[in-house]
Amino acid sequence: SLPLQIMRLLCGPHAALIPPSRPLWGLLSKSGTPPAQVACRAGPGTQSLPGPSDVLECNTLRPHLRSRHSPFNESSHFSGRFVSDEDRVMLNAIYFSSSSPSADRVRCSAPVAGLGEKAGLVVPPTSSGGEAEAEDVCIPLPTWGMRAGPRESIYFEPSLTRAAIVTVGGLCPGLNDVIQGLVRKLRDYGVPEGSTFGIRYGFQGFYSKKHRPVVLTGRSVEDIHLEGGSILGTSSIAPDYRKIVRMIDLMGLDMLFVIGGAGGHMGATQLEALLTQHGVRCVVVGVPKSIDNSILLVDRCFGFETAVNEAQRALFAAKVEALSTWHGIAVVKLMGHASGFIALEASMASGIVDACLIPEIRFLLDGEAGLSTYLDRLLQRQGSAVVCVAEGAGQHFFDTPHRDRAADRDVGPWLAAALKERHPGAYVKYIDPSYLVRSVPTVSSDRTYCKVLAHNAVHAAFAGFTGTTVGLVNTHYVLLPIPFVTQAPRRVDPQGNQWNRLRAANGQPNFT
């Protein structure tokens, strides 16, 4: 019967069912789990709750804090469902039957102490890596992650809570959206006006005499989502973390929200360690920012879809330039230091890119398999060509034995000059929209995503989690330990579906 089928879905295909004393309809709880009146007796093959060893767990300050009921228990504005610490999200959405499937995420096995062979994340090398980066890296990955969301018990008294927000690293669409979302959700919990602070121009703003922290209120963040950039300013300068810890203690902060990329999250990890070392009870929660979409394990970072959408404008302009001259070649450089996701997605979406170059593939410029020869054939066949290059591509052409982002050569002008030299009869145009792409307001999908990430960051902080960031993994919001996501950047898999879809669409070779 249909009720029996539903019960088997709820309890598992191998569970023995004990029928309820009254009809099933109306018995199902709001959480979607079997209510107390419906018993599920484990049968052979029934999966039990995953143990701690198979869950990517996050640190908490709960042993040092007192729990209390969430204010949403009595709020007429909250009709959602609470999340339990036992709720799990499967990090491996697909089971692979072979060690080299056609996929982008998980396709390796890695030995884990006490667990034997476990699935892992594959991180492809960069095109300009040395011998140490010549092979794929496999990072062990537990099966489950902790679900993000509001808990029924919280560990800070909202009326006494003091919080701070800081943006770290380069600009990215959505920074203001996240700031607004954090301030408003803190207010929803009952944090008083005047108790949420914005730290100016990165971590150094904690102790800078020129830029004091500012008070963030509902009114001060009213329409900031309509503007690009960050109202707090941002910086990538390495700070003095001990000074920051002293200021956090002096300000009486209970929560610090770090909106940043890999560098910002590494800084958050250092802060968490020092706060623990000095006995300062302040949770540190991150919101992952990467316009390159290079945060490990996370499906996508906020601002990425906006960046792809904006990057297409430059590609369309490049197409017009290339078509408007005889044998026109247009080169567009997009952001992507270690990962080529923006170049890949913009090229795929626009449908007008003839050659896409990304950091993950060491391309040849000359020879039969090289880019220049391929462009020769394109010019003879169609009269024009558009080349999209990520900023981190082609670094193997320069003398950089020890890869350092600050020392990377600007591949865009170099490539345009190299193509002009090799195609003297062609008109080569170069477009760099990098700062235009990262400074615009968000598109609607990113705007919503920013809000949800911000809300989940506040939920995590009130639940006592620290050294934690929030992200979308396999379409579900998950709490992730910061040290895990900063191990390596997420990169395009040259053997994966995304890259090969583009090659199938535009017909380009790998140029290797």
Automatic annotation (TrEMBL):
Keyword Metal-binding carried by entry: yes
Domain Phosphofructokinase per the UniProt entry, residue ranges: 162-460
SUPFAM superfamilies from the UniProt entry: Phosphofructokinase
GO molecular function, one term: metal ion binding
The keyword Lipid metabolism is assigned to this record: no
Highest taxon of the lineage: Eukaryota
Name of the molecule in the record: Phosphofructokinase domain-containing protein
Organism, scientific name: Auxenochlorella protothecoides (Green microalga)
Keywords associated with the record: Kinase, Magnesium, Metal-binding, Transferase
GO BP of this protein: fructose 6-phosphate metabolic process
Cofactor: Mg(2+)
